[in-house]
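Hi V.,

Quick status before I head out on leave. The structure for the redesign project is tokenized and pasted below; the design run finished overnight.
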């Protein structure tokens, strides 16, 4: 990244790909942002800039860099790949953490468990200008995309037909709506919708409150 590009990013403000932090607040908070970028489309965590785009700088770029390395290595599971850049803006030091979209999704906050447990893992994704906790459905989708386990052969049954019929009248459907529509458990409804995402029949979307909804992909 060049300085001109950084200034343009700052001017554009926070969004899906950009998060500002006035200072390194805590390992956990920084880990959430890094994880969310890695689990979504990648992005830039810019430290030394406030939410209103004011430039504050950091006390020591080397100190901030070491804290970031510790966070990515110790607080993220699996560890997140990133790169660091340093800039001087208005005579103040800025640290930019560039996080690419990961091929090892889903990343989660370190819980010291051997395997990912969908019901308890703290997995974060990026939604607009926020990093939010991913649902169980989103975690399963992230896991399937990372493992390249898309369903290439998928039989369309009555449940799937009901989803398509519903989406002809409504633009979106949720796990709860499908559960009530078919009088089935939310667990079964969740499994059906996730499989349809894996088969590239549906798209999954996350709201800023962490709730998911699904739309047609065809």
């Amino acid at each position: 990244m060049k300085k001109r590009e950084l200034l343009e990013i700052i001017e554009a403000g926070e969004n899906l790909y950009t998060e500002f932090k006035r200072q390194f607040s805590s390992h956990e908070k920084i880990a959430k942002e890094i994880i969310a970028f890695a689990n979504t489309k990648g992005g830039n965590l810019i430290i030394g800039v406030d939410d209103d785009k004011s430039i504050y700088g950091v006390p020591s770029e080397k100190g901030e860099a070491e804290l970031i390395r510790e966070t990515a290595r110790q607080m993220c599971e699996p560890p997140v790949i990133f790169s660091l850049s340093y800039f001087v803006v208005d005579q103040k030091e800025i640290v930019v953490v560039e996080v690419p979209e990961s091929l090892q999704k889903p990343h989660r906050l370190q819980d010291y468990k051997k395997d990912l447990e969908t019901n308890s893992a703290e997995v974060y994704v990026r939604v607009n200008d926020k990093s939010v906790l991913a649902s169980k459905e989103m975690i399963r989708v992230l896991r399937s995309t990372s493992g390249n386990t898309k369903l290439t052969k998928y039989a369309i049954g009555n449940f799937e037909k009901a989803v398509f019929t519903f989406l002809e009248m409504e633009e979106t459907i949720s796990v709860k709506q499908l559960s009530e529509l078919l009088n089935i458990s939310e667990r079964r409804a969740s499994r059906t919708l996730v499989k349809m995402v894996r088969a590239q029949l549906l798209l999954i979307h996350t709201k800023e409150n962490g709730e998911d909804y699904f739309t047609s992909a065809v």
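Above is the designed sequence. The first strand starts at residue 18 and ends at 21.

G. will cover questions while I'm gone.

Best,
W.
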